[in-house]
Specification:
alpha/beta; Alpha-Beta Plaits; TIM Barrel; eight-stranded mixed barrel; 19 helices; about 55% helix
Length: about 550
């Protein structure tokens, strides 16, 4: 269907080329002139000879004929030349327009080329170099490396950034990413480079390191610019970072190896409690392999019935009776044996398994409670992780668990840590109020370990504070720790809160906290965590259960 149109276009172009050819135009005019001239001479002479026999009149007619011929050919030539000139003018105008369009097209192509370059090598959100630009820069530097050259790769991300996205939304999270990128990049000078990898992950590349001893202090200085509070929708968020360091050539001789090792070091920094920078070493590869293996085994732990709940009694100091127990999860691996919670809880939080583990704890505690919970005021405390507390779906999931597992909320106490609530105090208050409306009581665990305990204590809808064991161990009267402890107790009672002292290991500690009106206590001095069967026997002995 398109072939005739192509042929027609070729004919038009061919005709246009002929008209624009000066030789063709000149020959055409001459031929027309010759035809007209010969035709006029022959025809006019023949007509005059017929019409005018008189020689004088004939001569006059020849003169008039000549004058008329000159005038007529002048008009004809004017018409031909004018038409030809119009064609040239139109052609020139068309060429000018085509040139302008071509120039504009060239400019647009350059702009498009620049845009495509930016998209290929720069992050659209922050304007920072992306992973492709970073890789090319590092590879080029390695290829052109000088003798004894050192490159420092710092792979880092924002601690608990997922919580900010969930609480404030992704648009607010993007604004935080842009602010951090601006605050840090404004202090980085070439040839050093800050690149955004993806999400909240960045890489700081330090080139031409002369003295390795000054490298880490310089990295710490960079992080001081961004380790601060950011105001996100009128709420303050104190932002911290976890990072891993890999050095060229000690930790890798190519980009891929350096990045893999820096990322491994960052994972170790996360597992050690975050808010720190860790330098890669060969043992980290082994650790990461072990974590990966543990993660795969964690997926099957619930269905294989490898988890157990242990319970540690909470003692009322005035009466000496057990009024509650704290449920503590234990993982008994079929080949590795007992795996401490510190090894798998943080791993489960990072990989999304904490939801299933939390549901299992609620279900198991509710089932066990029927066997020892006949005493009216007896309760079980369940620890709630920060990631669950900040999850928007937690309350909805909890309501479903209550229905599915027949949980009596009034028989349970929820324990949360201070670090779980200080990230977003407003949302924490909202979630805690929802828990209390369901019938749960709330305890603030590890009280006194954070920097904002006293600031937020009045705002939190809680019933109990649990004083951290760090204030109990080796405490003596007339010491700084003693006065801080006494102040905490008095403040809590002033706010009509119950006080639990954790980590009681000696009679002296038990006597001291009782002397200063601590309500409850738990620790190895009273009883270690025990399986359910031993707890039932313990409660019967202490007459906390009806026979």
């Amino acid at each position: 269907m398109k072939q005739p149109q192509k042929q027609s276009n070729r004919h038009v172009l061919s005709a246009l080329e002929k008209h624009l050819n000066p030789t063709y135009a000149a020959v055409k005019i001459i031929i027309i002139y010759l035809i007209m001239g010969f035709s006029w001479i022959l025809l006019s002479d023949w007509v005059i000879d017929i019409l005018f026999v008189d020689p004088q009149i004939n001569q006059l007619a020849e003169t008039v004929k000549g004058i008329f011929y000159v005038a007529f050919t002048a008009i004809i030539f004017y018409y031909i030349i004018h038409r030809q000139m119009d064609m040239y003018v139109l052609t020139i105008d068309d060429l000018k327009k085509a040139y302008v369009e071509l120039d504009e097209g060239h400019k647009k192509s350059l702009q498009l080329e620049d845009r495509l370059y930016d998209l290929a090598y720069y992050d659209p959100l922050t304007g920072l170099p992306n992973r492709i630009m970073l890789e090319q820069t590092i590879n080029r530097y390695i290829a052109e490396k000088k003798e004894n050259a050192i490159i420092g790769i710092v792979y880092f991300d924002i601690d608990e950034f997922r919580n900010i996205n969930e609480v404030k939304g992704h648009s607010v999270g993007d604004e935080l990413i842009k602010s951090i990128a601006h605050d840090l990049s404004s202090h980085i000078e070439k040839p050093n480079m800050l690149a955004r990898m993806s999400g909240d992950e960045f890489v700081l590349a330090i080139f031409d390191i002369v003295q390795l001893e000054s490298f880490l202090p310089s990295v710490d200085q960079y992080f001081k610019y961004i380790r601060k509070s950011y105001v996100l929708q009128q709420d303050d968020f104190f932002i911290t970072y976890s990072g891993g360091v890999a050095l060229y050539p000690d930790h890798g001789s190519d980009y891929v190896t350096l990045m893999r090792h820096a990322d491994a070091a960052m994972s170790i920094a996360k597992s050690k409690g975050k808010d720190q920078i860790v330098i890669f070493d060969d043992e980290m590869v082994t650790v990461i392999k072990q974590q990966t293996e543990l993660l795969n085994q964690l997926r099957q732990a619930i269905q294989n019935n490898e988890f157990q709940l242990y319970y540690q009694p909470i003692i009322e100091l005035e009466s000496g009776k057990t009024i509650a127990t704290e449920a503590l999860i234990r993982w008994v691996h079929p080949t590795k044996g007992f795996i401490p919670p510190l090894e798998f809880i943080s791993l489960s939080e990072k990989n999304g398994f904490i939801k299933d583990i939390t549901e299992w704890v609620f279900k198991e505690a509710a089932d066990n409670f029927n066997e020892w919970g006949k005493k009216r005021n007896f309760k079980i405390s369940i620890n709630l992780s920060a990631s669950m507390l900040m999850n928007d779906k937690f309350i909805g999931n909890l309501i479903r668990w209550i229905d599915d597992h027949h949980i009596d909320c009034k028989k349970f106490n929820i324990e949360i840590t201070e670090t779980a609530i200080i990230g977003d105090i407003q949302k924490s208050v909202h979630v805690l109020n929802a828990l209390r409306r369901l019938g749960f009581t709330i305890a603030l665990d590890d009280f006194g370990t954070g920097y904002s305990s006293l600031t937020y204590l009045q705002r939190l809808p809680i019933d109990t504070i649990k004083i951290d064991r760090s204030f109990i161990s080796n405490i003596k009267e007339d010491t700084e720790e003693f006065f801080v402890l006494k102040y905490m107790i008095d403040l809590a009672h002033h706010l009509k809160l119950n006080v639990v002292a954790e980590g009681i290991e000696t009679k002296e500690q038990a006597d001291m906290v009782k002397k200063y009106n601590v309500d409850y206590a738990q620790g190895y001095y009273f009883c270690k965590p025990m399986p359910q069967t031993r707890v039932i026997e313990y409660l019967k002995v202490t007459q906390n259960l009806e026979n």
